Amino acid sequence: MTPHSADEEAWTIYGQQQLDRGYSPPVPERIDWGFWPGVGPGAEIIGDIRGKRVLDIGSGPGHHAVHLARTYGALVDGVDLSPTQHRRALNDHGTEPGVRFLCADVAEHLRRTQRSYEAAYALRTFGCVDPLHLLPALCDGLVRGAPLVFSALHTDADGQGPSSEPVVRQGYVRLRDQEPIAVRMWVLSPVLWEELLAAHGFDVEVSELLAAPDADNPVVVQLVRARRR
């Protein structure tokens, strides 16, 4: 099994479990980059995206893409590797104006598409793709000056912090009454993210850590805004 197929299998299982549960997240009134409502900035950190072609990296059930289209007038392509996640998006939002959902590896999609994107974002999904696979394609697929905004895990529920090397680790996605699903993750330090982004044509403008409001919860999410050089 290749890393690509391992990622697809894990997130296909996750999407199928959500389909079996009949769970559809509502379209949010606000973008939350972490796991906690109201913590950190909202979609305004992306900048002015009205009428612009925007890429949602790992769009899942599609509710964030719909929010940006409805609230900000963006033209959003939601790309997800998992066919079951893609099915969830189509089931709920397949006819939504201003939104298109694609089932593909995002780097391969960027290499095939004929038009460049004017912005890209990822909510907690960026660290689930090998950055050495994704970043070169993003550099080629975004116009000069385009913002790239993403959140990624910084410290997990066990208190394990980020790595200073671009190495993969095993994480888990847990749903109630289901066996944990093992997923590949890149949990990297802010300095390493900045170095990797710089090496692939991006300048970091904002990097901040979003902590859980509950002091007993060790989870921390990193939020990054970079710009295509």
TrEMBL record:
The lineage of its organism: Bacteria, Bacillati, Actinomycetota, Actinomycetes, Kitasatosporales. Residues 54-131 form the Methyltransferase domain. Pfam families: Methyltransf_25. Keywords: Methyltransferase, Transferase. GO terms for molecular function: methyltransferase activity. The keyword Zinc does not apply. Gene3D superfamilies: Vaccinia Virus protein VP39 (3.40.50.150). The keyword Methyltransferase applies. This is Methyltransferase domain-containing protein. One of its GO terms (biological process) is methylation. It comes from Streptomyces camelliae.
